[in-house]
Amino acid sequence: MAWYDFKNISGRLSSPFAPLTASDVGNTDDTRPSFAQKGNTYMALRDIMPIPANGNGTLYQYQYFGLASEFRDLALTGRLDFDRYEPVRISLVGEFIKNVAFDKSAIAAKAVNTRGPDLAPNKPGPYVGGDTAWLLNLVVGSAAFQQRGDWNAYLGYRYIESDAVVDAFNDSDFGMGGTNLKGFTIGGNYALSPAVRLGLRWMSADEIAGPKFQCDVLEFDVNAKF
Questions:
Q1: pTM (2 decimals)?
Q2: If 177 and its partner were Cys, which of 27, 46, 90, 172 is the partner (CB 3.0–4.6 Å)?
Q3: Does residue 123 register a pLDDT over 90?
Q4: Is residue 29 part of a domain?
Q5: Which residues have CB under 8 Å from 167's CB, separation 6+?
Q6: Among 89-98, 119-128, 154-163, whose mean pLDDT is lowest?
């Protein structure tokens, strides 16, 4: 079990002001993330006032975006090993994560993405993000890569809702990185020596909420230790 408590990571709405150039600064601009992948729900950071100089809100809408949710993650992990067929081991590995700081109603009021289809012009659809992630992997093969010919193969499934974890820190390969993804991973590894092994895996990911997105990745790895 693990507990992750992120501080000063979510966005904050600025004091009302009217940026008229791209260099104007809002008092919460620094709450936007310095690095992100994709998947988390975002909110507008600048409370832009409609005034005659910006066409009463139709011009010069220089906006920044920050994370709409707070993140305090409770993570539970587990593993079961079955060694009856040694040297082949069968393992079942799982993880479950819940963002206990997630407040759906508060996020829905300010979310600019992770929404269903628009209900009408200028009326965005309902917020459809979530706070939960889980994965399950079945692994068969050698318990460790200690000699030439050691191997394993695995099949896994993961489901990562939009605001379960911080997308910047999530797997950068599955679905090309981030959250709001679900799908399968299948792959294997083969040892060329105690220090070198080859790996091959196929990852198929689909978007959970929002516009349709699908990404299939084939990845080949060479791993060496010294």
A1: 0.90
A2: 172
A3: no
A4: no
A5: 36, 37, 38, 39, 40, 177, 178, 179, 180
A6: 119-128
